[in-house]
Design brief:
mainly alpha, Fumarase C, Chain A, domain 2, two-stranded antiparallel sheet, 20 helices, elongated
Length: 500
């Protein structure tokens, strides 16, 4: 039985998937036997004994079938640009093996076992990140991933440098292999490039949403905002799942707040939307990301090869390699993440305005000091960049293969953009964390809610309060690490405050 891979359980599920394939490769062998029976019968089968794309009508003689697959790899390995990050490459490799192992691809056991050996030994190919249009599979990236099988291309070494694949294979006592019929096509047809990026980002994004709630609660306390908008009755009247979860988190984070009690009867009627509408905005992003996770997990555990080999002997050409489901979901996920940064930047701005006794720009002696003015500039720049990155790649299509592939998803571009949006959001959150912590210092000796107090305490263990201009980069780096590592969430939950 194959192991189902989930985003929540990465990277453990990748290891489990490899172990399951090592124990049981029976589906690979059965699928290959079915395909070889068809080849022996002389039946024309797309990509097995025919050309590819517009050349599908050209028959290839049996003695040239291995050459056909080798030519497919080298002709399609035309990727350019920065390499795919190693962690994402690892996911790509395992997802490809997982798909092949489901037994619909007809890949030869020799090719499958060698690719499996790469995964077991953590031999990761160097893969250029640009070149896929997200249909017919992620052809160029997957071709580069497969090149080391035939002794070409590059692997990453332990120092993070690329090394010729032939040299690495020799060091491990392995020789290049000869591809069998359909092997090359099975390797490069698929959406594993898009899916790997999406899985890596969404694994982090589904944790990041809790951090967003923590930051909002910190800012709200620092700004002496109201907890009334998080009343359970309001959200039960509009019961979107994400909205309910965020409101519950906000209530939990603010429990035992002396700051809230200190201004209960202040006469303020309403807070700005960036405080009052946190459940509605954060919640909508949560629901969008949950949808993206469902799409990605379906794809990660699916077969996206072409043609597919079935138990009854049929080999059917279809379009499971088309990346449209991922392209739409990844574009949607980018928008959802960008909105979290957008509302975060508005809270940063509000914290600088000098509301309710806070010093303007969050330092006592401004003029001589610029205070926290310029970190907000950086946040604004990142939010603006996200607006450009969130233009959906999935609305574009450029025909390829002489018009045979006349509608493509551009999901690979959706995937690459999504990673950059995530990076930008993490930095905006780091700036809000610094800013909210600085503002909370001025509310002392009043104590914030239990969860907020724990978050603030963790920040102050690593980053000091500032009352004069300094190199903000010195604090931004540890703040980003707090955001990326989900340390705030873990610290708060270890202190007894549960977050949904």
């Amino acid at each position: 039985m194959s192991h189902r891979i989930s985003i929540a359980n990465l990277p453990g599920d990748l290891t489990n998937a490899i172990e399951a394939l090592v124990k049981d490769r029976s589906r690979v062998a059965a699928s290959r036997a079915t395909l070889e029976t068809r080849i022996a019968a002389g039946q024309a089968t797309y990509g097995v004994n025919t050309g590819f794309g517009k050349l599908a009508n050209q028959r290839v003689p049996d003695e040239k079938l291995s050459d056909l697959q080798r030519n497919l790899l080298v002709s399609h390995a035309v990727g350019v640009g920065d390499p795919v990050p190693r962690d994402i490459t690892r996911i790509m490799l395992v997802l490809k093996l997982h798909s092949l192992g489901l037994g619909y691809s007809g890949v030869s056991p020799t090719t499958f076992d060698r690719l499996l050996a790469f995964a077991e030994k953590d031999l990761l190919p160097v893969i250029p990140s640009r070149g896929s249009v997200g249909a017919s599979g992620d052809l160029a990236p997957l071709a580069h991933m497969a090149l080391p099988l035939i002794g070409q291309g590059f692997f990453w070494n332990a120092d993070g440098q690329s090394e010729p694949a032939a040299d690495v294979l020799a060091r491990y006592g392995m020789s290049p292999i000869a591809l069998g019929a359909k092997d090359g096509l099975s390797l490069i047809n698929g959406t594993q490039f898009m899916a790997a990026y999406g899985a890596w980002v969404l694994h982090r994004a589904t944790k990041l949403v809790r951090t967003a709630d923590i930051l909002a609660a910190m800012s709200l306390e620092a700004l002496q905002g109201s907890a009334h908008p998080f009343d359970e009755r309001i959200h039960n009247a509009r019961p979107h799942p994400g909205q309910l979860d965020v409101a519950r988190n906000m209530r939990g984070l603010l429990v035992e707040s002396e700051i809230l009690e200190s201004h209960r009867d202040c006469g303020k009627v309403q807070d700005p939307y960036c405080l009052r509408c946190v459940p509605q905005v954060h919640g909508a992003s949560r629901d969008a990301l949950s949808h993206a996770v469902r799409v990605l997990e379906t794809e990660m555990n699916a077969v996206t090869d072409n043609p597919l080999v079935f138990d009854d002997g049929d080999v059917i050409s279809g379009g499971n390699f088309h990346g449209q489901p991922l392209a739409l979901a990844l574009d949607f996920a980018a928008i959802a993440l960008a909105e979290l940064a957008s509302i975060s930047e508005r809270r940063i701005y509000l914290l600088l305005e000098g509301h309710d006794g806070l010093p303007r720009l969050l330092m006592q002696e401004t003029g001589l000091n610029s205070g926290f003015m310029i970190p907000q500039y950086t946040a604004a720049a990142l939010v603006s960049e996200n607006k450009v990155l969130c233009h959906p790649a999935s609305v574009d299509s450029i025909p390829t293969s002489l018009g045979q592939e006349d509608h493509v998803s551009m999901g690979s571009i959706s995937a690459i953009k999504l990673l950059q949006v995530l990076e930008n959001v993490q930095h905006v959150f780091a700036i809000e964390l610094l800013t909210a912590a600085q503002a909370l210092d001025y509310r002392h000796p009043l104590r914030p809610g239990k969860g907020v107090e724990q978050a603030h305490g963790l920040v102050r263990e690593r980053i000091p309060h500032r009352e004069g201009d300094y190199l903000f980069q010195d604090d931004l780096a540890p703040s980003v690490e707090l955001i990326r590592s989900s340390a705030l969430q873990r610290h708060i939950e270890s202190g007894g405050v549960h977050l949904d």
